[in-house]
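Input chain follows. Return structure tokens only.
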Amino acid sequence: EVQLVESGGGLVQAGESLRLSCIGSGFALEAYAIGWFRQVPGKEREGIACIGPSDGSTYYDDSVKGRFTISSDNAKGTVYLQMNSLTPEDTATYYCAATRYTGNYYMRSYFYGMDYWGKGTLVTVSS
């Protein structure tokens, strides 16, 4: 059974950093694309970063490019999201998700075909 568990959320002040973790089990991380999403109540969930752990290819939404970094530790079956220079607009529940990885052509497309989801971790950034 494929499972994804997020952790690392919490309350921070604007300008501070957090690192989220997504631990996967029941599947080989290298065979999947892993994405990070976030959602604010009343708004659609948005994809912000994804990675193909087998080759390290990444993609970032413009809203987080230059501030967030996605990485993977394949031996630990874990994908991280390092979030720097946080602002109150980053306040959301953050989810990781997975789908089969078929290569790094048009990485953004993985946002639209995720098959497995974690339950999320809440990030709150105070001003």
